[in-house]
Amino acid sequence: MTTRVTLEHVAARASVSRQTVSNVINSPDIVKAATKQRVEQAIAELGYRPHAAARQLVTRRSHVLGFAVPPSGGGTRYPVDSAFLHALTEAAQREGYRIMLFTAGTDAEEISEYRHLLDGSDLDGFVLAHTHHGDPRTSWLAEHGVPFVTFGRPWGHPDVSHHWVDVDGAAGTRAAVEHLAEAGHVRIAFIGWPTGSGVGDDRRDGWARALAERGRTAGEIADWQAVTLDSVEAAAAPVRALLERVRPTALVCVSDSVAVAALRVTAQLGADVAIVGFDDAPVAEPLGLSSLRQPLAEAAARCLDLVLRPRAEPHQVLLAPALIVRASSGTARHPLATPSPTHESLRTP
Questions:
Q1: 209 and 176 in contact (C-beta within 8 Å)?
Q2: C-alpha span between 279 and 245 (Å, rounded)
Q3: Is the model's pTM score more than 0.70?
Q4: DSSP track, 243-280
Q5: Fewest C-beta in 10 Å: which of 95, 137, 192, 335?
Q6: CATH assignment of 169-297+321-339?
């Protein structure tokens, strides 16, 4: 069976990155003449044939971007996904673009949909969400020369070069610890997700580093945390067990679902524990729950800008969440915390 020539084969032959080959195909004006000539020669020698839809991307004729709607699930993910999609749609409309939605339950299904959409539709690119360890979607799109951006980092692969926008979860949980420490709390525990979730691990790491800086030992940090699935029902038992074992005066929670469980359990136990959640889901305000609000409108706008306007180098944007302080952690002392500055970096492939 004949092996299909991919973008990666061309990149190896021309001694350039896959992104450079993609730029030669889709945005040749941003590539140096000598490099462009070398890539074009490699394409001719190998007989590489870019996908017909990918070749049309540079014309920007369709003004349509693809976005996979993730499976509905429990916890606070759904309102966050909905808010991001709404913001992305609004940002696209301001640019004269439309978002084409499709569904996929797995990475393989989503990649299959990429093939179908590129065969039958004239798309200008894709916006991806829910990046994770070993994510194969980005490499498939890069190899096929299709413009894309991810809302989420390439977890576990810092050497992967593509456009991405993400929210700095570690900065958020650090801000939560600082807020609680200023209120006099010392025993600040954490309820997170099982190890392996890029987002969850990032949020836990911010809490752990903040405690280490305040003199907590590695043993205390290991003991002052628990893990749970992201639902109010699943989190109740781990929250109760942690409260009984550690006796913390404050809890930083990986999500608002976990924080709601903490509110319920502390009420049942009559425990006076300050609580901070993450995501500022719609349930947070009526419950008086302090939470970290993701800048979803800005994230959507930055994603759109990166996928529509080619850059010669991969561009990565890290946005800080805003700590919204309510009754669960002391409104009287802290009327409203402000977000940290936006962190942004460029990385050369």
A1: no
A2: 27
A3: yes
A4: HHHH--SEEEESSHHHHHHHHHHHHHHT---EEEEES-
A5: 335
A6: 3.40.50.2300
Burial 67-88 (b: 16+ CB within 10 A, else e): bbebeeeebbbeebbebbbebb
Which is it for strands 125-129 and 315-319: parallel, antiparallel or unpaired? unpaired
What CATH number has the domain spanning 7-166+303-319? 3.40.50.2300
20: its two tokens: 């450079």
Give the number of other CB atoms < 10 A from CB of residue 275.
29
**pLDDT per residue rounded down to tens, the chain (349 residues):** 456 788 888 889 999 988 888 788 777 878 888 998 999 899 888 888 766 545 544 444 578 999 998 776 555 567 888 999 999 999 999 999 999 999 998 999 999 999 988 887 778 899 999 999 889 999 899 888 899 999 999 987 766 778 999 999 999 999 999 999 999 999 999 999 999 999 999 999 999 999 999 999 999 999 999 999 999 999 999 999 999 999 999 999 999 999 999 999 999 999 999 999 999 999 999 999 999 999 999 999 999 999 998 777 888 999 999 999 999 997 433 333 333 334 443 333 3
Q: Which residues contact 3 (CB under 8 A, 6 or more apart)?
A: none
Tokens 């730029």 correspond to what residue? 23
233, burial (CB in 10 Å: exposed 0-12, middle 13-18, buried 19+): exposed
CA 296 to chain centre: 10
Task: Return residue ranges of the chain for CATH 3.40.50.2300.
Answer: 7-166+303-319, 169-297+321-339
Query: Would the CA dihedral through 122, 18, 142, 318 be positive or negative?
Result: negative
Gyration radius from the chain CA atoms: 23
- Per-residue tokens: 1: 């069976």
Q: What is the 3-state secondary structure (H, E, C) of 164-178?
A: EEEECHHHHHHHHHH
Name the E strands within 155-216. 164-167, 188-192
